Amino acid sequence: MKTVEISQSGEMLTAAYEELMEKISEHVTVLAMHDEPIDGIMTTKRGLYRLKEQLERLQNRPGQEIMTRRSEEILGLSQSLMWLIEETQQKLGIDVLESVKIGMVGEDDLKRVLIQYEYLELAKEGYKYKDIKQLLSCRYDWSVSRIEKLVYRG
Q1: Which of 10, 14, 42, 89 ranks highest by number of CB atoms within 10 Å?
Q2: Do residues 51 and 82 share a domain?
């Protein structure tokens, strides 16, 4: 593919993505107005956002994405653990890669910190506690009761 074709297809994807996100936001608003759960659609929205980020990374630096995958294979870390490390870096600004590599911090530790942080952030945004727990349960593959214990008992 030529550079022109790549940029044109990128522009088309961006326009389609923005239109889809707008429709999803409208749908979330309608669901919230009728007190319906929004966890499934929010998970879908987050997945689409991550897909867009990956496409942008590939479009901007295709060679570097390949190097990142190779480094993941060399480090021997699972995809879910790499995702948690990236989430911690983005949301909290903490680089925990070295701590994970030497075994000081595990997957459950990262999930605990991220769940507590996101729980408070979503509560500040005005989400209902039931919806927050369901959303975090889907996102981090923890039961709602386990999230309740973590958040309420500290």
Answers
A1: 42
A2: no
Say how many domains are in the chain: 2
3-state secondary structure labels for all residues of 113-136: HHHHHHHHHHHHCCCCHHHHHHHH
The model's pLDDT over 3-59, given as tens digits with 9 standing for 90+, comes to: 555 555 666 667 777 777 777 777 777 777 777 777 777 777 777 777 677 666 666
pTM score, two decimals? 0.52
Q: Are residues 50 and 96 in the same domain?
A: no
Name the residue type at position 109: D
Residue 106: count other Cβ atoms within 10 Å of its Cβ.
Answer: 13
Query: Mean pLDDT, the chain, as a whole number?
Result: 77
Q: Range of 143's domain? A: 78-154
Establish if 71 belongs to a structural domain: no
DSSP 103: T
